Amino acid sequence: MGKTSDAVAEGVSIASAAARLTVRNHILVETIAHDESFDPAQLAPFAQQTLIELAVEQEEAAALTRKQRKRAWGKFTDSDGTHDYRDRDMRNLRKREKQYERVAKELRVRAADPEAVAELVEQARDAAWGDVEANLQRRLRVEGMRPDVDPDYEMMRGARMQALRLVDLPRLSAHRRKLNDGGMRHAAEFAPESAAE
Fold this sequence. Notes:
Elements: H1 2-33, H2 40-72, H3 90-112, H4 114-143, H5 153-189, H6 193-196
């Protein structure tokens, strides 16, 4: 029984990590891409649904294992591959089926528990914030790099100068011309008639 409970605990742990990742991604998309505020109460139904969907996956895996076990019953020949089970695999298949069922049951219990759902949302929020924080630190480190602490400064200087000459300066010049042309046209439109004569 110890091995089965270990397998169930590991399955629940993996499913919880998957749920946390799914909710974290949802938080990132809603708060960053859609510019929404973070509201744990609004995220709870999504987190609950995520747990239920993971439970359904486990139940489907249990049903598949049950079918495989029924097909394996009474077969005593050598198997043709990894998922070509035989009668000697019946015990392991039955054990695996029960493990899937127990993981699904635990996920459904967590989905029905408001405290467990709130904890999942909080863990996902922390993970999302960790991603944002790491991204900001990485950008600040790169953008705030000084020549004396950048080991690749000299090697990359030529490429940066070439990009400045070939891309940035022509773009700046075109932008400046566009502003000047637009400004002159705008000024001519609003000039008094006496100035036009």
